[in-house]
What does this fold into?
Amino acid sequence: MLNVLVVGGGISGGSAAIYTAQGGLDTAVIDSGKSQIKQVSKVFNYPGIKEITGPELLGNIKEQAVAAGTEWFEGTVQSVEQKESAFEVSLADGRKLETKYLVVATNIQTSILESLGFELAVNEKVPSGKIKKVLGIDPDGKTHIPNLYITSLLAGLSSQSVIASGHGASVGISIMSIETGKSYMWHDK
Ligand SMILES: Cc1cc2nc3c(=O)[nH]c(=O)nc-3n(C[C@H](O)[C@H](O)[C@H](O)COP(=O)(O)OP(=O)(O)OC[C@H]3O[C@@H](n4cnc5c(N)ncnc54)[C@H](O)[C@@H]3O)c2cc1C
It folds into this structure.
């Protein structure tokens, strides 16, 4: 069984995986390859990086996650079943994975959350009025379902890559803090 399974390998999911894998947790990402940042030819607003293409930013995050030990799978998660102390995640191609912590980082895709019974509302931070969020999410992505976390837009945040990345990191830190029993900090020398 995995420690952490991240559904969605975009900016936020990849960032969460960097933290949990670097922290030593057995981490996997399942990604269907449709990150919104792929549509952006030049990103100028990611602090610390003056200019980068969306695909390059995404690729760097994936490389960092894999270098930290994340297993990265292409695929689409179709359903999630809550078991006694784990989640059973079924992919469209028939594969099944079990995990202790589940991070839903699917951005505009809500089907998994609807099937788990989450109540959705309009994310008013996105002007179109068409984007959804889950009500009652903690700042670090925690939900009312133990060990299930939700990132970025679906947690009611704004649609910006640095916010998605920071929130993914925050989710990773929250999981690491529970697993280590103290507030987790990653300090490079
Ligand atoms: C046209 C456009 C322009 C933008 N320009 C900018 C900009 O200039 N600067 C900026 O900061 N931000 C910009 N953004 C916003 C930025 O793209 C997002 O903030 C960022 O991608 C959100 O990261 P995320 O991880 O939440 O979602 P994403 O990066 O979209 O990743 C979600 C991932 O989940 C996967 N997924 C979904 N459902 C499943 C499933 N069931 N199973 C497996 N995988 C699944 C998707 O395939 C995708 O890879 C722009 C967005 C758009 C649409």
Residues 24 and 68 are 8 Å apart (CA to CA). Residues 161-180 form the longest helix (20 residues). The beta strands are 2-7, 27-31, 71-74, 77-82, 87-91, 96-104, 120-122, 132-134, 148-150. Residues 7-13, 30-37, 39-40, 43, 45, 76-77, 105-107, 109, 112, 151-153, 159-162, 164 surround flavin-adenine dinucleotide (CB under 6 Å).
